[in-house]
Amino acid sequence: MSWVSLLKANVRKEFIELKRYLPNTLATLFMFYIIFLGMFSGIQFIGDPSSQDMNTQYVIVNYLFWFLSMTVMNSIGFEVVNEAMRGTLEQLSMSPLGMWRIMLTRLVATTVIHFILIVGLLYASMLTAGQWLNLDLITILPILLLTLVSMFGVGFMIAGISMLLKQVQAFLQILQFLLVGLTFLPLSVAPFLAFFPFVKGVDLVREVMIHGMKLTEFGFMDYFILVVNAAVYFPLGLAIFLYCEKVAMQKGLLAHY
């Protein structure tokens, strides 16, 4: 089975699950929309009127990246837990392509499908707030792709830990709150966060969507940090995943929950 076939199979799997459990999918989208309404209402009633528009745009970008980061980094951990509970985790490890390739294509499939949902949330949020962001895809997509690579690396780390510990749902829920802080905290407050997996990417996309920045207007260090994060976190995450898989196989943790 080629990479393309594997990706097509996982995209189809993800789409079928979202469609089959449609009430849960709609409830998730509704929950995030309600969260945005809460943030938007707080800005309108409590925030400084002179900066309401800027703050609203800031919230739209950040909460959508929060949704994306949770989807990308948490989903593969839940995938491992679910496969273990179903008793199919060992079968994945026996695949000629290797479990890491299956998980990588699942990550890509999950990202592609949920990106469509995020676009829907984006337009719903902008329509509700009456604030229209700069959607310059030529500038946003390269930044977003590099950011996703580092997110995938963290996702593999979480998947490896999930393979060994099995019960990590509480940890994944705590991670959701940590992601809120990393997404909403501006780099001007804590510049060292630029070397965290996705914080720099979020910061650059904010500049594009709110201030209309172009690719040529960013400095060398901006791109350098993005590339370094992608080049470090993905190989590191994959190495941790492969090591955890090896330990799990030696201890017989793949055969039972």
Compile the SSE list and pairings.
Elements: H1 3-20, H2 22-46, H3 52-86, H4 89-93, H5 99-129, H6 137-165, H7 169-184, H8 199-211, H9 220-250
Helix pairs in contact: 1-5, 2-3, 2-5, 3-5, 3-6, 3-7, 3-8, 6-8, 6-9
Q: How much of the polypeptide forms β-strand, as a percent range?
A: under 5%
Number of helices: 9
- Derived from helix and strand composition plus strand pairing, the structural class reads mainly alpha
Roughly how much helix do the residues carry, as a percent range? over 70%
Describe this structure in words.
The longest helix is centred in the N-terminal third of the chain and has 35 residues, at 52-86. Helices cover 79% and strands 0% of the residues. It is mostly helical and 257 residues long. Helix 3 (52-86) packs parallel to helix 6 (137-165). The mean pLDDT is 85.
